[in-house]
């Protein structure tokens, strides 16, 4: 019998992981990347003798596939995807593909903001509780590669809306939706309803024994829930009101009441991750832990000793009484809102980059209250100037991390915070947000 042919578009972490698993499952595998393939990924493909091409998509070698796995970064508007859809060749995500070959249970975490932190915290709690657990999705090593080479009972998966768009039969045992705020609207015809519908795919195929954890304070989530059928058990969390079968804040205490006989109460002062947004993230992770019947003492310990993740409100240094914070992972306006909300001093804000159709209105109040100068870091800063010229006296353009840090250093006075929280993607001047954050940190250390 002829081997089924799987073509993989994109040869990054997820694409190469999918190739490893597809080869192991006996498929005829071909990998195609429109850009150049990074050295370590190319080595893996060569070592495993997997056919590949780079810097092009040869249509004839792709449209003979039985199924195509595409990288989440490739939009449906790309010509090769249109061609595949015209020919009714299924296009799926690496997550969808990998789930077919594992019996492990999955905890899937999505949301416009906070998903990396919540994913890391959930993984940290489960690992501390002694569960045999893997970490994958938008973070760490590819899910497919781990399915091919590891044997975990549980996976904590960080899932983006782009991944969800190409997931069909996948089922999350526990689904977490943190919030829905405008992000990546360029991929959703600039329609919030399209983006929200994409996020709600996290509950598709769930059964009554599964759980759906969501924020009862998030308007867009509540709106989307009205038109979504949810078969699983709903577990809301809120810092504004008391909720049943979920988590809520009362005074300074988080209460998790999934199981009336085993209530968990914890003071927010015990949390290692501080700030309002992290109360939400901690509640979501705490509910997951209680659904899995992890002991309260383990949950408390884990929430108290987790280290903050790199590039997310990461404290870099204090120089001449000025704090420098790296929040390069803030690639949308809402993330920058959270960052500003969590800083209690006057701020020199470094922002800018590739604007994904941002609406800066939601930042205006916080910028008026806290920001004494904006240092733009990007090739085209026109929209930032237009948005804030009435709210901030000083707006400066810079074109490198080094220049931005130098300018911020001269604008800051003792007691201020220099905050890199760009609200934009990084691809105009940097490889990715990590590169932007690392260059910022290096520039700070050279001051």
**End-to-end separation:** 65 Å
Q: Average pLDDT, to the nearest integer?
A: 92
Instruction: Tell me what the CATH architecture of the largest domain is.
Output: 3-Layer(aba) Sandwich
Instruction: Spell out the CATH superfamily of the largest domain.
Output: Mur-like, catalytic domain
The portion of residues forming beta strands comes to 15-25%
CATH topology group of the largest domain: UDP-N-acetylmuramoyl-L-alanine:D-glutamate ligase
Number of helices: 17
Indicate the percent of residues in helices: 25-40%
Low-pLDDT ranges = none
The quaternary state of the protein chains shown equals single chain
Helix/strand-derived category reads alpha/beta
From the alpha carbons, calculate the radius of gyration and give it in angstroms. Answer: 22 Å
Total DSSP E strands? 20
Major sheet:
9 strands, mixed
- What best-fitting shape do the alpha-carbon axes yield? globular
What do you see in this structure?
Pfam families: Mur_ligase_C, Mur_ligase_M, MurD_N. Cell wall formation. Catalyzes the addition of glutamate to the nucleotide precursor UDP-N-acetylmuramoyl-L-alanine (UMA). It comes from Pedobacter cryoconitis. Its EC number is 6.3.2.9. This protein is of the alpha/beta class and 447 residues long. 35% of the residues lie in helices and 21% in strands. It folds into three domains: 5-92, NAD(P)-binding Rossmann-like Domain (Rossmann fold, 3-Layer(aba) Sandwich), CATH 3.40.50.720; 96-305, Mur-like, catalytic domain (UDP-N-acetylmuramoyl-L-alanine:D-glutamate ligase, 3-Layer(aba) Sandwich); 314-445, Protein-Tyrosine Phosphatase, Chain A (Alpha-Beta Complex), CATH 3.90.190.20. The strands form three sheets. The protein has a nine-stranded mixed beta sheet. The chain has a six-stranded mixed beta sheet with strand order 15-16-20-17-18-19, with helices on both faces. Strands 3-2-1-4-5 form a five-stranded parallel beta sheet. β13 (253-256) and β14 form a beta hairpin. The longest helix is centred in the middle third of the chain and has 16 residues, at 276-291. The radius of gyration is 22 Å and the shape is globular. It starts with a strand and ends with a helix.
